[in-house]
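As noted in the main text, all predictions were made from sequence alone. Below is one such record, for Crp/Fnr family transcriptional regulator.
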Amino acid sequence: MKEEQAICYSCMNENCFIKKHLHLEQMMTYVSKKQNIICKKSDQFITEGAPLQGLYFICKGKAKTVKTGINGREQIVRLTTNGDIIGFRGFGTSKKYLISAYALEDTVLCNFSNETMLEILQHIPEFTYALMLFYADELNKSENNIRKIAHMNVRERVIDLLLYIHRKFGQKNGLIDIELSRKEIADFAGTTEEQAIRILSSLKKETLIKTEGKRLGILEVAALRSEIMEHKYF
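Prediction:
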């Protein structure tokens, strides 16, 4: 990883939480204090249990956040892309990061320190309110994920994951615009790699999805949605 300074005013990322909720004149005081970090694919930029060093916002790229579970196995808890916030779960309540985070491709991150974030929250009510709504939405998603694990079987969880990444990242040339290993799919779906491979193979034989290397493409969105419709999670 290496650091450099990027200019928010010329940034093309329209999904950035900072740009959405800080006006240009408000930005001036704070963006000069941020750091930009460039990560190569697979670089780890947050370590679970490490001292909190502010919040990360994805300027460009994709990342995964993971939490250590039973027997030291990592569970993927979130996939992120342009504009998303990373490291927020420990902010304000803990002095340590509660997750680890890795770049899924070459990624540019904007890091705002603890002190800068607190300054923004204390002086910009609109931003504080927007962040409160963000936390409420993330809490709702977390509660839904707990219910999914309890109520969905393994095939349904894999289908739910495929539909989630299809919605979040979209498809280009018939393939979802994110590359995940079969192990990463299994980790996110809460199953074993062997089970995930079998289910993906079955979905492919049923011509519901297609594969090209690690890439996946959904051929029948409606059919996959119908399989998990009774759970009403999307």
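The two ends are 36 Å apart (CA to CA). Residues 125-151 form the longest helix (27 residues). These features were considered when defining construct boundaries for the mutagenesis experiments described in Section 2.9.
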